[in-house]
């Protein structure tokens, strides 16, 4: 049987390689989609646990919210995105929700056109872990107004961002660059009475950013309860 010309043989080999690569990509997508559907979160094209610094690209990720809808950070390109680490079992979180401070900050941000993603990285074995439906119900009771509440029980997203406390706040600009990281405000206490005297760093940062000004306090100290990561 005559052999194929070298050029035809090369094309056949390349076609076979491309077909295998396409099949592998499709398989990975299918596995990831199935895992996300079961509540897993993933980083997209980012080394795990490589916490970004200010001025760097924020790690892309995909996760499901409390209603089972999938969200990918890069889908919000062109908008400011606020990430809020939360856990209703934490007294610092309850301070800001029970007083109405966090819901008001969420509403102010989304009214400007920002996307607000609350992230729950509390592991399932923790005593104060809330299942998605329970967490969704608690948020509604508080009058919360995030764009979505994401489940990150495996801690993949939280550890990628270096989230240490609840709350811990991050702001990503329309180009996907991290421009703020730190606390919700300037007084590190669990007392609601301190809120009126505190500087709300998130409101301040977004106001400056939308006004075309540099963020004057881009890195502040986060305070609250430790994130209860899976061990």
Folded structure, characterized:
The chain is α+β, with helices and mostly antiparallel strands and 231 residues long. The chain has two domains: 1-38; 41-226, Glutaredoxin (3-Layer(aba) Sandwich). The protein contains six helices and ten strands. α4 (132-141) links the parallel β5 (115-120) and β6 (148-151).
Brief write-up:
Helix content is 33%, strand content 16%. By secondary structure, the protein is of the alpha+beta class. The chain is globular and about 70 Å long.
Features:
231 residues, three-stranded antiparallel β-sheet, Glutaredoxin, alpha+beta, 10 strands, 6 helices
Strand runs, count: 10
CATH architecture of the largest domain: 3-Layer(aba) Sandwich
Order of helices and strands: HEEEEHHEHEHEEEHE
Question: Count of helices?
Answer: 6
- The rough form would be described as globular
* The CATH homology group name of the largest domain: Glutaredoxin
CATH topology of the largest domain: Glutaredoxin
Largest sheet: 5 strands, mixed
Average per-residue pLDDT, rounded, comes to 87
Overall domain count: 2
SSE class: alpha+beta
Portion of residues in helices? 25-40%
- Flag low-confidence runs: 22-39
Question: Gyration radius, to the nearest Å?
Answer: 21 Å
Order of adjacent strands in the largest pleated sheet: 6-5-4-8-9
| Oligomeric composition of the shown chains | single chain
Strand percent estimate: 15-25%
Highest-level CATH class of the largest domain: Alpha Beta
- Give the end-to-end Cα distance, rounded to a whole number of Å: 61 Å
């Amino acid at each position: 049987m005559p052999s194929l010309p070298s050029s035809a043989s090369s094309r056949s080999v390349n076609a076979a390689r491309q077909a295998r690569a396409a099949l592998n990509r499709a398989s990975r997508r299918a596995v990831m989609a199935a895992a996300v559907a079961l509540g897993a979160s993933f980083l997209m094209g980012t080394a795990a646990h490589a916490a970004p610094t200010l001025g760097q690209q924020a790690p892309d990720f995909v996760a499901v919210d409390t209603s089972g809808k999938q969200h990918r950070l890069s889908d919000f390109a062109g908008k400011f995105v606020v990430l809020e680490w939360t856990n209703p079992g934490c007294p610092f979180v309850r301070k800001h929700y029970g007083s109405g401070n966090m819901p008001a900050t969420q509403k102010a941000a989304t009214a400007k056109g920002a996307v607000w993603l609350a992230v729950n990285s509390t592991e399932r074995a923790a005593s104060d872990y809330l299942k998605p439906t329970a967490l969704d119900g608690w948020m509604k009771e508080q009058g919360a107004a995030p764009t979505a509440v994401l489940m990150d029980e495996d801690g993949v997203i939280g550890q990628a961002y270096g989230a240490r406390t609840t709350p811990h706040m991050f702001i990503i600009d329309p180009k996907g660059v991290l421009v703020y990281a730190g606390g919700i405000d300037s007084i590190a206490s669990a007392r609601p009475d301190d809120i009126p005297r505190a500087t709300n760093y998130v409101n301040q940062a977004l106001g400056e950013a939308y006004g075309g000004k540099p963020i004057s306090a881009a890195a502040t100290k986060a305070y609250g309860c430790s994130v209860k990561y899976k061990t």
